[in-house]
Design brief:
Largest sheet: 7 strands, mixed
Helix content: 25-40%
Shape: globular
Number of domains: 2
Distance between the termini: 12 Å
Mean pLDDT: 96
Bound molecules: NADP nicotinamide-adenine-dinucleotide phosphate
CATH architecture of the largest domain: Alpha-Beta Complex
Strand content: 25-35%
Oligomer: single chain
Number of strands: 15
Amino acid sequence: MRAVRIDEFGGPEVLVPVEVPDPVAGPGEVLVRVAAAGVNRADALIRKGVYHRAGRPPLIPGVEAAGVVAAVGEGVTGLEVGQRVMALDGVNAPGFYAELAVVPATRVTVLPHDVGLTEAATLPVAWLSAWYCLRHLARVTKEDTVVVKAAASGVGSAAVQIAAEAGARVIALAGSAEKAAWAGEFGAQVTIDTSAHPDDAEVEEVLRLTDGRGADLVLDTVGGGAFARSLRQVGHGGRVVALANVALEPSTVDTRDFYPRNVHIHGFQITDLMEHGYDPRPDLQALLAGVAQRRFVVPVDSTFPLSDAAAAHARLESRAVLGKVVLTG
Ligand SMILES: NC(=O)c1ccc[n+]([C@@H]2O[C@H](COP(=O)([O-])OP(=O)(O)OC[C@H]3O[C@@H](n4cnc5c(N)ncnc54)[C@H](OP(=O)(O)O)[C@@H]3O)[C@@H](O)[C@H]2O)c1
């Protein structure tokens, strides 16, 4: 089969198409013919050798995909050859930047007929993470004012919709006027262009928009200085969920910025959760139902052929992406 493999860490050019032997489904496993694979920021960090959970090359990246079941291993029940499915797997498993991939049956979810393969391929990481953080960790309600950082990103555009669907008032932050306006169309009441509100001005704008009280919830995928600002953007009893550090820098935090207001800080990491027993399938079913009923719109920024994974990564890292980048065929 064709796959895209990293033989050494580096820039997008190290994503090289290669021929490798077809994988075979063992007991409890499913062989998926990949139709679409989500491209994630973690893939780019793995490629560069800076991801905290990454193994060493050679590596076939890709942790999420949708496709068709090509074979089922011994002992697998409830899944059949020919079914349309989506799959989510661990970071160092042979990945989905390939024509075929073997995945544990417990990481496979059957798709409803009215959800497309390209949109399904974007759900297991960005959408599931936004869902878990907002619904399970922060328990978003219609009483909440929710700040979503990097709201035009894969996680951000999902989070805006999930929070809006819960009835919350959403303040969407993004790094340009165009990105902020785009993210706002998914149900945010207010948008902030962070390029026009740098540093403390970002905090002041959120406080102004909440009559000085601060937000109830901040979803922070940016990290670094943005995380320090998140702590100052929530009010009494507020929740801050940190799930990434795109900034790739430490945060300098003054504890006086959050303990006096009884602020809760949550961390989230999907792979770690699954390694500790979390079964993502019920939450993925809920997301699929939302997409099938068109309560959620899956924004796909761009698609690239598998052989052009390098261009897909260059696009992802351009910081111009609106929604998700996907590899197809
Ligand atoms: N913990 C988990 O389990 C988990 C799960 C899913 C995703 N994640 C992580 O969440 C983060 C966001 O994922 P995503 O798919 O939404 O990413 P993405 O689509 O690549 O978007 C990242 C966004 O972050 C913003 N940003 C702020 N500072 C940046 C910087 N220094 N360099 C680059 N971008 C910067 C940019 O938006 P603006 O220009 O609008 O600021 C950019 O568009 C990633 O780090 C990803 O690995 C974690």
